[in-house]
Design goal:
Blueprint (H helix, E strand, L loop, with lengths): L13 E4 L5 E7 L10 E6 L4 H16 L3 E9 L4 H25 L4 E7 L2 H11 L4 E5 L13 H9 L3 E5 L1
Parallel strand pairs: 3-4, 3-6, 4-5, 6-7
Antiparallel strand pairs: 1-2, 2-5
């Protein structure tokens, strides 16, 4: 699919709002009807970058070796106003996650997509905890050989905050 041809996002199965009525999270379910519900839950953070897609591809390889797993794909947008969130959350989040969802769906893996607003690292870790995920998968923007020991600030903060294992894909 080229960048000019975008599919229509699916209808959300869940909407969450904050205390002022602002849309803060949309959830889309891509669980095949054959899914058992007792899979190990993983969360992968996706921002639309090539690094994030590489992390999804690596997770798919890993998932083929696991007995059963369920993937929660999350995209975190910075805070939007109440009015902007009504359309902005999906207008920004879907293009950033569409390719990742396509890769996972093509393999027949059970997944849920979460488009949410907030501070990225904190939101990723909080959602993983809320969903009972055993692992978080994040891509890392490689900066070159001399900076190879460095990680991006969001990745580093996820590692610091997460009580569960974090898989960093370079």
């Amino acid at each position: 699919m080229n960048s000019e041809t975008r599919s229509t996002p699916p209808s959300p199965c869940l909407q969450e709002r904050d205390d002022i009525g602002r849309l803060t999270r949309l959830v889309f379910d891509g669980t095949p009807s054959s899914a058992s519900g007792d899979e190990t839950a993983w969360l992968i953070a996706v921002d639309g970058s090539a690094h994030a897609l590489r992390a999804v591809a690596e997770f798919i390889k890993l998932a083929e070796q696991l007995k059963s797993c369920r993937l929660h794909i999350v995209n975190v947008q910075h805070w939007l106003s109440k009015e902007a969130a009504e359309t902005g959350l999906i207008e920004r989040g879907w293009p950033a996650t569409e390719a990742a969802v396509g890769l996972v769906a093509a393999k027949g893996l059970p997944w849920q997509l979460h488009l949410t607003m907030g501070a990225p690292a904190e939101s990723i870790v909080a959602l993983a905890h809320q969903l009972g995920c055993s692992h978080i998968v994040v891509g890392n923007r490689g900066l070159g050989a001399t900076e190879s020991l460095l990680t991006g600030s969001i990745t580093r903060k996820v590692i610091e905050l997460a009580p569960m294992s974090v898989l960093v894909v370079p």
